[in-house]
Amino acid sequence: MGQAGHDTVTPLEAARAYVRRGWCVVPIPYKQKRPVIKEWEQLRLGEADLDPYFDQPANVGLILGEPSGNLVDVDLDCVEARAIASSYLPSTAAKSGRAGAADSHWWYIAADAKTAQHRDPQNRKMIVELRSTGGQTVVGPSIHPTGQRYDVLSGEPAVVPAEMLAACVEALANRVIRLRHGDIDPVAASGNGRTDAVAHTGSHPDRITKHQTSSDVESRALAYLDRLPPAISGNGGHAATYAAATVLVHGFEIDPERALRILLDHYNPRCEPPWSEKELRHKVTSAATKPHSQPRGWLLNQAREQPVDSSVDISALVGKVTNVTKSMPIVVVQDHDKPSESSTGDPGPLPDELLRIPGFVSEVMDLSLGAAPYPNVPLAFCGAVALQAFLGGRKVRDPADNRTNLYLIGLAYASSGKEFPRKVNAATLHAVGLTKGLGESFASGEGLQDSLNDNPCMLFQTDEIDGLLQSINKAKDARYENILGTLLKMYSCANGFYPVRKKAGKQAAETIEQPCLVIYGTAIPNEYYSALSERMLTNGFFARSIIVDAIKRGDGQEPGDFHPTPRIQETAQYWANFNPGKGNLDKFYPTPKIVPYTEDAKALLIDARKACEAEYKLAESRGDPVGTTVWGRTSEHIRKLALIYAISVNHREPEIDASAARWATRFMLHQTRRMLFMAQGHVAANPFHAECLKAKQKLSEAPDGTLPHSVLLKRMKVDGQSFQKMMDTLIEQGDVILVNQATAGRPSRVYRLIEAS
Description:
Blueprint: H1 11-20, E1 24-28, H2 51-54, E2 59-63, E3 71-76, H3 79-84, E4 95-98, E5 101-109, E6 116-119, E7 126-131, E8 136-139, E9 158-159, H4 162-181, H5 186-190, H6 214-226, H7 237-251, H8 256-267, H9 277-289, H10 360-371, H11 377-391, E10 396-397, E11 407-411, H12 419-431, E12 438-439, H13 445-454, E13 457-462, H14 465-474, H15 478-492, E14 497-499, E15 511-513, E16 516-523, H16 525-530, H17 534-538, H18 541-544, E17 545-549, H19 566-577, E18 593-594, H20 599-621, H21 625-649, H22 658-682, H23 687-701, E19 706-708, H24 709-716, H25 720-732, E20 736-741, E21 748-753
Parallel strand pairs: 5-9, 10-18, 11-16, 11-17, 12-13, 13-16
Antiparallel strand pairs: 1-2, 2-8, 3-5, 3-7, 4-5, 6-7, 14-15, 19-21, 20-21
Helix pairs in contact: 4-9, 7-8, 7-9, 8-9, 10-11, 10-12, 11-12, 13-15, 20-21, 20-22, 21-22, 23-25
């Protein structure tokens, strides 16, 4: 719906368009702003339900937050806020308003955003409001009570982090307060120790008094900044810059936008290399929003030339800073945005040395690699580990009661050897009489339960993981949700029991004691990531999976014999016969053998757990639900892999030694970071976001991250209007720049990915 045609759009047509975009609508009486339907928050009208409500004079409201795919509204309630909004709020193509209040609503997609009202501390009138779940906003072609028509919302909302948006809205409100009242203390002005514009924690002295003007504060801040170490690449640069930003916006309470200018003008020239404005803005926003142990303004009351008191602990603010000026006793602190150099960016595919486990796993890998027409090391590794995990299922555990059940997913293109590790595993299990434990597909959650009820240890080898995830993501068939629920619960019940549904003719429901479900799944990379969504990333399946890239196909060779060697068959037969329990009920109530830790291994595994906990806390502080979900499982994965390493090396008398612990830790820390990086770059919040990510991916694959307009348009396979809208959004977000290159004819338009610049 274009702006020009808004006057002719009916409420019913607009409501249909909003629903098609995935947004929930609520009917509102004509010329009113609030719904009268009881419990309207729960209303979920489909396109077929709209006529009775909107085929008449009516206003249209959008239900905000989670019901509408995390759609949020920043409502600019005063002239000052609307005038300066572009200097504070993230750019977005979705804006709406009405006559006399043009562009008074800025729209975004922000997961987990919380509603926040910011009022003038003196007259209590609203300045700006961030509206999310639990709220609604009237949109065009509705009519305001005063008679003006609202704009129809037609642009695409920008996708932004919730904490960043909240910080920008708060900074905007604070600026309006300063414009109106000067450098007052908003807390004191509110009269009740708190203002909706700025919610302070902790007690602190007055921050700006009549003796401390803005210029005085900035002068002191600059003097302080001069004593901070510059950011040097590879030498604590991120932490040093985060410290500088924190000093300005938190220690001296300088407005974030002004703090950014100070960093650009006075701090950045000393950095090697200098930061981009986008990078510095991110640091300032993070410093303004992260929780801190010190109260705001804690540097304002120190004497003008007094160095930082070394007894003051600012360890919650910034990360390790090296080469600190000796005369300035700065305390070492943690950078929340960059916990370590190795934990950000793309760590790349697993190095070859991590795709090996001595003993049985390597022997099975060698068989697969020697026989496959196109040997693929990562796939051979996944298949061999899955086989060892299945053979050890319900038979061994570590002292912390971790079991060998794993969900392994290898990502590889067609004709890259995905089927050969499955053939090796099937032939090996056939040779030792364990084919009943093999499965191929998940027909339903009930079928999966029945399979494990008959055989409590199962190895499912499937090439349909991406299709399964696509079906679950679309949520059009309840049976797929049931499959997912069974997979999640079965994984967690490996050291307990799984209650099976009560069947007809049975007096009581049955239970599966200590089920061991091992999955070796394969998928095409693009299909797998396109099947994911934020919901899929946080519901537990992604975190329970170990995803290994197997993109590169090996050189061709003549196929060989994939049947097990005598040594492999002997080891597999040992596991088939191994019965660690006592009596005739071991199949139903097994007593797995405990594989002990060595003291060195135990210490290494404790260190690994603490490292994962630190990553979890950092993700938690950033409001990152995907990071917390995945890092919450990483330590468990490390323990499972260390156990599998031990029984591969010595199946008769295994022990988890330092080599097992060290390998498992390196493997999982690397792979967790790889999984999170790949998810960040491929998983979309909505279809438009998916196309934007696809365009960025096309540019990242091009030389120097650059493609001509015509080439990128052809590769995107979308119409010209949609393409231009998408590229405009990427440019506004600061992800892509447009460059006009001189040619023999007219200038050529070229898009360049900023990350590659």
